[in-house]
Amino acid sequence: FIRSMATRGALGGLAAASHDAIDVLDAAGFDLVLVETVGVGQDEVDAARAVDTVVVVVVPEMGDEVQVAKAGLLEIADVFVVNKADREGADRMLAALRIMLAVAGEAGEDRTPEEPGAELAWQAPVVATVATRGEGVGEVAAAIADHRRYLERSGALGRRRRERLALRVEGALKARLLERVGGRAGLGAAVANAAARECSDPYRLADRLLRELGGGPGRREGPAP
Predict the structure, then answer these.
(1) CA dist., res. 25 & res. 14, Å (int)
(2) How far apart are CA 111 and CA 209, in angstroms?
(3) How far is CA 31 from the centre of its chain?
(4) pLDDT tens digit at each of 225 positions of the chain
(5) Half-sphere exposure of 154 (CA within 13 A, CB side)
(6) Nearby residues of 46 by Cβ (< 8 Å), 6 or more positions away
(7) Nearest 5°: phi and psi at 18?
(8) Contact 223, 192 (CB under 8 A)
């Protein structure tokens, strides 16, 4: 089953309903659910929170390997795949990624596995593939399976899923609060009134709307606009 979903204005590379779609597919009994984002970059980093294993696919043509580090991909990738590995520049990209990952791993070694509560270290593998010929696909599948075993063995799987649930609950609360503000407190009318009075303080306006919803005193003191 394949379903294409636009981001629909949502940041992070995924539509807001994508998380619900993942839940539905999981409940339907699918063993694996693959989530593909709109691309590679800083806007897609939040998509990492929706899955257990993040596979970042790059190609030699993407340019300077430093862009990978600038986009924050070193921090979120569990598996790196260099596709089109038969093209010029692939070996250079493979070597650069492995060096950057090794350096990042050394810089982040602030805990050892022997310390209480410390997770076992995971070094993201870098796999070369040529998708048009099916080369390296088995190695990618093996790397994903290895990461799953790591998550289960280290206890990180449960932690990631708890954090994911917390973020989704937070998002649902924000959406419901905005819905209530727009309905009961009249967000549009309040903004129009504040603008007409040349009040540009969004914090005081938010505090006023919260008070009208019965949310208690605002963060800041002083008369509402």
Answers:
(1) 16
(2) 45
(3) 21
(4) 787 876 666 656 677 788 888 899 999 999 999 988 866 555 556 677 789 999 988 888 766 566 666 667 778 889 999 999 999 989 998 998 998 888 877 655 544 444 444 456 889 999 999 999 999 999 999 999 999 999 999 999 999 899 889 988 888 888 888 887 766 556 777 777 777 776 677 788 788 777 777 755 544 444 444
(5) 19
(6) 11, 12, 13, 14
(7) -60, -40
(8) no
> How is residue 184 annotated by DSSP?
I
31 Cβ contact partners less than 8 Å away, ≥ 6 residues apart: none
Whether pTM exceeds 0.90: no
Q: Rounded to whole angstroms, how far apart are CA atoms 131 and 138?
A: 11
CA distance 94 to 18: 32
Between CA 12 and CA 46 the distance in angstroms is 5
Residue 126 tokens read as 């870098």
What does the alpha-carbon distance between residue 38 and residue 59 come to, in Å, rounded to a whole number?
A: 15
DSSP conformation class of 12: T
